[in-house]
Amino acid sequence: MHEGHGYFLDELSVGMSESFTKQVSDQDIIGFANVSGDTNPVHLEEDFARKTRFKERIAHGLLSASFISAVLGTRLPGPGCIYLSQNLKFRAPVRIGDTVTAKATITAIDPEKGKIDLETVCTVGEKVVIDGQAQLLVTKRETVPEVPPGTKAANGFGEAAQV
Predict the structure, then answer these.
(1) Euclidean distance between CA atoms 161 and 148, whole angstroms
(2) 46 in Cβ contact with 29 (< 8 Å)
(3) Residue 103 C-alpha from the chain's centroid
(4) Between 106 and 146, whose confidence is greater?
(5) How confident is the model at residue 6 (pLDDT cuts 50, 70, 90)?
(6) Hey, how many other C-beta atoms are within 10 angstroms of the C-beta on 89?
(7) Does domain 9-162 have CATH number 3.30.870.10?
(8) CB contact set of 42 (below 8 Å; sequence gap of 6+)
């Protein structure tokens, strides 16, 4: 990666992977409910949750899925990428105190379109809680034009800016 920018498309290869790990707290769930507007009582009310199949409060599925976004936006490919699509399958609940690891692995690269496909998975220990696939747009490395003598910088259009 580069300071202030993630990987460029030409630096990526199939099989590269990165991960992000976070322990889910009560405050995370409350904060996510406030930000998202999802105040389903299975996430927020112990008495209600106790009567469900889960027997206790569980984290929002998309809270755990957001850890995938953390991997993609900060580590692989990192800052500058654009999320195009994501499909998810929720396999098991995440509970308060669980430590979730989100992992993304590059499965395909389309150099012409500047897109990559990734396998995404969230686990708690060895148990898969979410899996799916994502597609991202990744910055192509631009050729920096040679700056002629007497000029200081390119103007962004492939021409030297006069000073």
Answers:
(1) 10
(2) no
(3) 9
(4) 106
(5) confident
(6) 11
(7) no
(8) 48, 49, 52, 54, 57, 58
Q: State the Cα–Cα distance between residues 39 and 119, nearest whole angstrom.
A: 30
Burial (0-12, 13-18, 19+ Cβ within 10 Å), 68: buried
Going by C-alpha positions, the residue among 27, 30, 32, 16 that lies closest to residue 67 is: 32
* Residue 64 amino acid letter: S
Query: Measured between alpha carbons, how far is 137 from 9 in angstroms, rounded to an integer?
Result: 9
Q: Is the peptide bond before 93 cis (omega within 30 degrees of 0)?
A: no
Query: Which spans in 2-110 are helix H?
Result: 26-36, 41-44, 46-50, 61-74
**Overall pTM > 0.85:** no
- Tell me which amino acid residue 154 is: A
**Token couple for 128:** 């898969």
